[in-house]
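Box 3.1 A note on notation
Throughout this textbook, protein chains are presented in two layers. The first layer is the amino acid sequence; the second is a token string describing backbone geometry. Keep the layers aligned when reading.
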Amino acid sequence: MKKILKYLKSLLANLLWTKLLGEYTSKIESDLKRLNSYESLNEALLTLSSLTDTHSKPNINPLWDIAKHQELIRQNIKNYGYELAKSVSALIPPKKELAPQFVGLRSKPSTQSDIESDWCAYWCQKLNVPPIYHRKIWELAFVCQALYEKGMLSLNKRGLGFGCGQEPLPSLFASMGASVTITDLDPEVAAGLGWAETGQHASMLELTHYPDIVDKQTYNDKVTLEYVDMNDIPAKLNGSYDFCWSICALEHLGSIQKGLEFIRNSLAVLKPGGIAVHTTEFNFANNKETVDNWMTVFFQQVHFEKIANILRADGHIIEPLDFDVGEKPLDKYIDMPPYLHDTDKYDASVSALQNLKNHAYSTPPHIKVALDGFAVTCYGLIIQKSKNV
């Protein structure tokens, strides 16, 4: 009897397994048939999210119900932001006859208060750019203020810029007496990554000269160009410079880890006691997820704390980390695509800065932005190399 019961249990188990397997196989075949009715899953999603069907009737389905108002919502946000920025700007009195000042700048994110500050306005005047509510304007001013406070922007100082593109900072630093080496990717590599097409790559030294900031002769005397891979900084540059900087370049090195390694490795080009200032993307609203191992990565608070601890262990000094992203209205406004460089208003034949100047008062505030589903802003690090290295 026991043998019979054992046999029956085994037979029942096999029958159940065969039934489940058959149902699972049938489901897979059904799913494949559905997917194969479209050329690809992307095509299926595009078809389902279209506002109308092939007969120009509302394309009623669950995905359509979610997506149908997305563009209208996005446009409402853009319009609201533009009007908000105009209203806020109207309340700020004009700033005249400004002078550089010491404010004790920390490592920090971009904020509305910074852009409205006298120190930011001063550097905007020096760069001949309007102090608009844009994080790229903040980055330029942040680097200048940090280097000024460390006594770097003066005669006989030597600076190196990583991934400079067509920044105006080399022109400004040259006008203040510093000698500057600007670096960027080899032109062939940059073309493959698309930087050359957006005016962010210095394929020729002439493209980084801003005649409204410094005369041509001074620029030629003070500024040189080197092609450098930020993931492989050549040893010939080591120990040669009083300061170095980068503006939103290290997030394009392939991963968060590579970005952190660059920050550490960049100090090798400095003399003992030299100053490094780097800005990058800061995912400030999501501590659980972020973008990594991609063409543009987003650093989180934990990553800045990690590199700060490493640098301090190496004997270097890093200005205190401030993670306050601000409480003013434009600090709470998250700009959404399409951005200026995504539109037909963008002129790829001129620099990104010139495009900002051309449309300074016709774009929404751009201090905090939506990128790949994350709320992002800029973060600046200020580091002093150990004097004992």
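The two ends are 85 Å apart (CA to CA). The CA atoms of residues 260 and 310 lie 10 Å apart.
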